[in-house]
Write a structure and sequence with these properties.
The structure is a single chain. This protein has 246 residues and is an alpha/beta fold. It has a single domain, classed as P-loop containing nucleotide triphosphate hydrolases (Rossmann fold, 3-Layer(aba) Sandwich), CATH 3.40.50.300. 37% of the residues lie in helices and 15% in strands. The chain has a 7-stranded mixed beta sheet, sandwiched between helices. Strand 3, helix 5 and strand 4 form a beta-alpha-beta unit. The protein is globular and about 45 Å long. Bound molecules: adenosine-5'-diphosphate and magnesium ion (MG). Adenosine-5'-diphosphate binds next to helix 3, helix 4 and strand 7. InterPro entries: ATP-dep_Helicase (IPR052511), DEAD/DEAH_box_helicase_dom (IPR011545), Helicase_ATP-bd (IPR014001), P-loop_NTPase (IPR027417).
């Protein structure tokens, strides 16, 4: 494994600039996660609350989206799906997704490079009907949702708007892993897998359990990397099942 700071070399200039201005260095959890994900592995991030796990998942996704061209078909635009069972979903999203995105845009402007054009949408039980219809017409790059809303999405015609998904982040896994809610989520993730074109081979990680990155079916079966920081007193897990074009 490279040094904690070296891992930042895997990000684009604007992301590095923002991160360097915001924080002294990546946390151990972030360095481990980015190393594994950057190497194309599935990754499970297990570390105490406040270790930067959610930011690790969002920042990698933002950076990838910023560097990828937009899909030709706008219906394939939603490439990152974030699922969290938390009631206070919006707080995590504001702090770990919207704030970094704004920071990366400002950093890009300072560096004279085009600011990332990344859209974020949320779908929960409270989402009004007109916003749900808008999701179907113009999916955002990143969709934030709950296990229950994901199930409903997959059960409706709107599931077509998930056909371009490459990365799935499952956060707060510990809150659902041992429950019916978790079993239901695992089923939804399998349903999502089944409808994606070029379906990759099954995750080696029992879902939902980890942050992972999937490779296309044509490449080698994805390896699973489990990485943990020092033994946490109260483990909290961020998880993701991802597909990668690379
Ligand atoms: N490398 C870092 N150094 C210092 N603070 C960080 C770092 N990464 C994230 N943070 C901050 O720590 C807090 C917790 O991050 P978060 O990703 O929500 O942690 P977790 O998901 O592990 O609970 C947030 O306010 C975030 O901005
Ligand atoms: Mg978190």
């Amino acid at each position: 494994m490279g040094s904690v700071v070296d891992v930042l070399e895997r990000f684009g200039r604007a992301t590095r600039e923002w991160f360097g201005a915001a924080f002294a260095a990546p946390t151990g959890a972030q360095a481990g996660a980015w190393q594994a994900i950057g190497d194309g592995h599935h990754a499970l991030v297990v570390a105490p609350t406040g270790s930067g796990k959610t930011l690790a998942a969002f920042l990698w996704s933002l950076d990838q989206l910023a560097r990828e061209p937009l899909p030709a078909d706008p219906k394939r635009r939603c490439r990152v799906l974030y699922v969290s069972p938390l009631k206070a979903l919006a707080v995590d999203v504001e702090r770990n997704l919207r704030a970094p995105l704004t920071g990366i845009r400002h950093a890009a402007a300072r560096l004279g490079i085009p600011p990332p054009d990344i859209t974020v949408g949320m779908r929960t039980g409270d989402t009004p009907a007109d916003e749900r219809r808008a999701f179907q017409r113009t999916p955002p790059d990143i969709l934030i949702t709950t296990p229950e809303s994901l199930f409903l999405l997959l059960t409706s015609a709107a599931r077509e708007s998930l056909a371009g998904v490459e990365t799935v982040i499952v956060d707060e896994v510990h809150a659902v892993a041992a429950t019916k809610r978790g079993a239901h989520l695992a089923l939804s993730l399998e349903r999502l897998d089944a409808m994606l074109p070029g379906r990759p081979s099954a995750s080696a990680c029992p879902p939902p359990c980890g942050r992972s990155r999937r490779r296309p079916a044509s490449s080698a079966a994805p390896a699973t990397s489990r990485w943990s920081s020092r033994a946490p007193p109260r483990p909290s897990r961020s998880a993701c099942r991802c597909r990668s074009k690379t």
